[in-house]
Amino acid sequence: MDVKTAFLNGDLEEEIYMEQPEGFIVHNQESKVCKLDKSLYGLKQAPKQWHEKFDNLLMSKGFKVNESDKCIYYKTEGRLCIIICLYVDDMLIFGSNLHVINDVKSMLSVNFDMKDLGEADVILGIKITRTENGIFLDQSHYIEKTLKKYNYFDSKPTCTPYDSSVKLFKNTGDSVNQTEYASIIGSLRYAVDYTRPSIAYAVGLLCRFTSRPSLEHWNAIERVMRYLKKTQNLGLHYNKFPVVLEGYSDADWNSLLDDSKATSGYIFNIAGGAVA
Question: Looking at the record's lineage, which domain of life comes first (predicted)?
Fold first, then answer.
């Protein structure tokens, strides 16, 4: 669901005045200003006031806030459970059945101007596909957009994101296109954090050279992009059963030749898909 003009719902805690907007200036009252009764887009506190408004409503309806993520709300009644995930003005609603989901939708629609977008298909660039055995999440559209943005869409695909025989060092010479390097790293991090853990090591390593990338670092980034070209449609699949938590970890010894530091890594899976 989507909240229309979400920031206009916030209640102000301070007295705030604004100039009369162009086209609505009162004749012979040009020197006067307007006092805001509600929050307005452009105010620094607008996002905070909107979230506070939404938070207070759900708390009054018996919802609790997830301790790990303050934008996730949940409510249980016996064997029934409802979960709301909020991102600014977009939200996903999960429930034990359609009845409890529709009740929450009705409650929200009474308090806010809502738009029901139906069954979730795409959220924050993540495509949701329902299968016979569970749910599949991927970012194929986002990856395609990223490849085209940085002119790697027509590059030659490769089967691995990093060449383990290549040893990267800090650049002691001139930086090579640092701004675009940082931009690509940010785009890759978004894929890593949601559906592409297979590039986590390579991207994490390349992050260390963001301040002064060299040609060798650019070659390594190109390798990651070529791998994404090859595996654009890969993602995460979460099975219906069993919902088992599994964790794996590993570490090397003295992998960074510049400062002799070790590198460790871990992954946690639930229902067959990575969650951390």
Answer: Eukaryota
| Residue 264 forms part of a structural domain | yes
Band of residue 256 on the pLDDT scale cut at 50, 70, 90: low
Same domain, 144 and 259: yes
From CA 121, how far away is CA 237, in angstroms rounded? 15
The reply to whether 144 and 253 lie within a common domain is yes
Structural domain span for residue 92: 2-120
How many Å apart are CA 75 and CA 57, to the nearest integer? 13
pLDDT in tens, 143-170: 999 999 999 999 999 999 999 898 889 9
Question: Global pTM?
Answer: 0.83
Task: Kindly report, residue by residue over 119-150, the tens digit of the pLDDT.
Answer: 999 999 999 999 999 999 999 999 999 999 99
Sign of CA dihedral 227, 232, 233, 237: positive
What are the tens digits of pLDDT across the range 18-39? 999 888 888 888 889 999 999 9
Domain boundary among 86, 120, 154: 120
Helix axes 140-149, 215-230, angle to 10 degrees: 140
140-149 and 178-194 helices cross at what angle (nearest 10)? 170
